[in-house]
Structure formats: structure tokens, C-alpha cells
Design brief:
This protein is 42% helix and 15% strand. With 253 residues, the protein is of the alpha/beta class. It has a single domain, classed as 3-Layer(aba) Sandwich (Rossmann fold). Strands 3-2-1-4-5-6-9 form a seven-stranded parallel beta sheet, with helices on both faces. Strands 7-8 form a two-stranded parallel ribbon. Strand 1, helix 1 and strand 2 form a beta-alpha-beta unit. It is globular, with a radius of gyration of 17 Å. It starts with a strand and ends in a 15-residue tail after the last strand. The structure holds NADPH dihydro-nicotinamide-adenine-dinucleotide phosphate and 2-hydroxyethylsulfonic acid (8X3). NADPH dihydro-nicotinamide-adenine-dinucleotide phosphate binds next to helix 1 and helix 6.
Length: 253
């Protein structure tokens, strides 16, 4: 029987690359996101390429009822989840706190914190019931060190850090692993979303250095699931060689 990974935000970037890596390693996938067509194309592609099964769930993670209803449609055999990847997330804007747009703040808080909680609340009881599991939360270098204009995004990722630490305590008695992966800048749709479709601004984020790719992060996510059952990687921070932390980059290339 193949293992199952549930991935939030699998329509692009890190979530999509992770779906590819786990499919290649003979996992069945539950992939989620708002863009239904992208989910369906990916499901078809991966199930054919790797002879695995893929179940798609199309919902907006900010909608509490939609999350609950979507997860409730999982057939029993798909509830036997081994890995939950809480990945869906975004940054919107890079404004100073005094200039920030409240709609942007709400999008980040509702997605990065509340959405992660809604999904976790539905799925963690299943992991407990199955007496196994691994929760992997995607934090950020911004879970540890803030940067100018990062205010609310950094706050949401600090919150993810707090949740990973407390989940680890809550799930200790159930032998469920909790890992947090903290990527630095990785070239995905992240900056396009942050800069609201402004491609020039988005491209600037990755200028002058070789940034991480979504595949680099996906490889690390897979790695933390491959260790012996008694071992838990609590946290991994991964940056490009040219990035020291949230603020310091070597852009001399
Ligand atoms: P992408 O923009 O490429 O992917 C984000 C994914 O999240 C998409 O699949 C998107 O799906 C999903 N998503 C966003 N909002 C919602 C929503 N409301 N409901 C459901 N799904 C949603 O970015 P990344 O792959 O880079 O980002 C993935 C995670 O990695 C995020 O948590 C991000 O904060 C984190 N991260 C990214 C870094 C980077 O530099 N790229 C660095 C550090 C952390 P859809 O739009 O179809 O709903
Ligand atoms: C994303 C990291 O520094 O590009 O979490 O905003 S950063």
C-alpha cells in the first residue's frame, strides 16, 4: 500500500514541486488549491507519469466551512494520511506598517495562520486516530528574522513558528512528528503575488544572485520524511548560498 501526502497549495511553487517529488517516490497525493484546472492538470500528469493515485480538493483555505466540507468528501481510504504539508500561503504588499492595506493584512493572516489552523484541525485528529503521521509546516526565514516592510507577513510566519512548536508538544504523546521548513527566497509565484502581478518588481527580488528553486525546498521536505521513525527534524532553514538571512544578500552576480 502506498503512503499518502496531503498538500495545501499544490497549484504552483513549493507545493507543486513537493507533489512531484512525492509522486516520484511512490506516494499517493491529495492536492489542494483554489485553481481547479491547475490541480486537475497536475493530477493527470503525475498519476500517468508515476502510476500513483491523486485526489484533488478545490477550496479557498480562508473559508472555514469550505475547508471542512472539502475534507469531509475524502473517501475513507484517503483518510489514511501519512504526511500533512501545510504549505499554502502568501505575502501581499511590502508597505510600511503606517501605509499598509488592511485587505492585504487580512489575506495574509487568513491564509497563513487561520487557513493552516482550519486544515490542521480537520486532519490532525485523523493522524491521531491512525496512530501515525508527520505534520510539516512551511515557515520562512521570516519566521525568525524580520525585514523592512515585512511586518504582517513576518508576523504570520512567526505565528507558524509558534504553532509548530506547540503542535510538537500537543502531539508528543501521539508520536506524530512535527517539522518546520524555513525557506529563504525561492523563485516561485510568491513575488508575483506579493507585488500584485507587477512582474518587474517580482523579478527584482531574484536579481543578482542564484536563488533557491521550489525543487530545492521540495527535496528537503521529502528528506525529513525519510528518517527513522524515532527521529524528528524539528526545523530546517534553507537559503541560497547568496542569502545570509531575511535581509542580507550577496547580489554581486
Ligand atoms: P506560490 O505563490 O508559488 O504558491 C502558493 C500556493 O498557495 C499556491 O498553490 C496557491 O494556490 C496556494 N494558496 C494561496 N492562497 C490560497 C488560498 N486562499 N486558498 C488555497 N490555497 C492558497 O508560492 P510558494 O510556493 O513560494 O509559497 C508556498 C509557501 O512557501 C508559502 O507558505 C510561503 O509563505 C512560503 N515561503 C515561500 C518563500 C519563497 O521565497 N517563495 C520563502 C519562504 C516561505 P491557489 O492560488 O491555486 O489557491
Ligand atoms: C518568504 C521569504 O524573505 O522572500 O517567506 O519574504 S521573503
Amino acid at each position: 500500500m502506498r503512503k499518502i501526502i496531503f498538500i495545501t497549495g499544490a497549484t504552483s511553487g513549493i507545493g507543486k514541486a513537493t507533489a512531484e517529488v512525492f509522486a516520484k517516490n511512490n506516494y499517493d497525493l491529495i492536492i489542494t488549491g483554489r485553481r481547479k484546472e491547475k490541480l486537475e492538470v497536475l493530477a493527470k500528469e503525475l498519476s500517468i507519469a508515476y502510476s500513483i493515485e491523486v485526489f484533488t480538493l478545490n477550496f479557498d483555505i480562508r473559508e472555514r466551512v469550505a475547508v471542512k466540507e472539502a475534507i469531509a468528501t475524502l473517501p475513507d481510504k484517503w483518510k489514511n494520511i501519512d504526511v500533512l504539508l501545510n504549505n499554502a500561503g502568501l505575502a501581499v504588499g511590502l508597505d510600511k506598517i503606517q501605509d499598509g492595506f488592511i485587505d492585504d493584512w487580512e489575506a495574509m493572516i487568513d491564509t497563513n495562520i487561520k487557513g493552516l489552523l482550519y486544515v490542521s484541525r480537520e486532519l490532525i485528529p485523523l493522524l491521531i486516530k491512525n496512530k501515525k503521521g508527520h505534520v510539516i509546516n512551511i515557515g520562512s526565514t521570516a519566521s525568525k528574522v524580520v525585514y523592512p516592510g515585512g511586518n504582517v507577513y513576518c508576523a504570520t510566519k512567526f505565528a507558524v513558528d509558534a504553532l509548530s512548536q506547540t503542535m510538537r508538544i500537543d502531539l508528543l504523546e501521539h508520536k506524530i512528528r512535527v517539522s518546520q521548513i524555513n525557506p529563504g527566497a525561492a523563485e516561485t509565484e510568491f513575488s508575483i503575488v506579493r507585488f500584485k502581478g507587477d512582474k518587474d518588481q517580482a523579478d527584482n527580488a531574484y536579481k543578482g544572485y542564484k536563488s533557491l528553486t521550489a525543487k530545492d525546498i521540495a527535496a528537503a521536505i521529502y528528506y525529513v520524511t525519510t528518517l527513522p521513525e524515532h527521529v524528528c527534524i524539528n526545523e530546517l532553514e534553507i537559503t541560497a548560498l547568496a542569502q545570509a538571512n531575511s535581509t542580507y544578500f550577496n547580489r554581486s552576480n
